[in-house]
Amino acid sequence: MNRCTIVTALGITALLVAGPAMAGKAADDVTVSGAYARAVPPGQPNSAAFMTLTNGSATDHVLLDAESPVAKVVELHTHLKKDGMMQMRRVDSIDLPAGKETRLQPGGYHVMLIGLKQQLMPEQQVAITLVFKDGSRTTVTAPVKKLQMKMMKQGGGMNMQHGQGGMMMK
């Protein structure tokens, strides 16, 4: 092998090894906008937080967990329709594709705040730390907002059932 081939091979090897290290940390690449937490009436033990996550990089990232001092347990959740019933379920992670926006919104992905340590009232602020698969973290401050739930079923009324693993709506 000549010297040029060896140098080229070493350069390519270095790029392959360093490539992942050169990729940005998720906490730097992902911007959070429109974050808010749902206000709850007195005695309500759970709430949820919503936001838009925009991955501005060319690298896919993964949201792995969330934390907040206002709840005993914080989980990533989604809603799924199964056998004609809407079911809320915990998810292990939320993919954040490169160059895309991922919305955490009512009826879809969201951050579930379980076992609230305080009542969440409008005008308060809630700190939520997002934990990414690469170990990086970012903390957002989400205002608490009162939401008006508009859920309707043909023929009037809504049938809600609580089942194992979450709430179901028919």
TrEMBL record:
The keyword Membrane does not apply. The keyword Signal applies. InterPro entries: LpqE-like (IPR007410), Lxx211020-like (IPR058248), PCuAC_sf (IPR036182). Gene3D superfamilies: PCu(A)C copper chaperone. Residues 1-23 form the signal peptide. Keywords: Signal. Pfam families: PCuAC. It comes from the Bacteria. This is Copper chaperone PCu(A)C. The lineage of its organism: Bacteria, Pseudomonadati, Pseudomonadota, Gammaproteobacteria, Chromatiales.
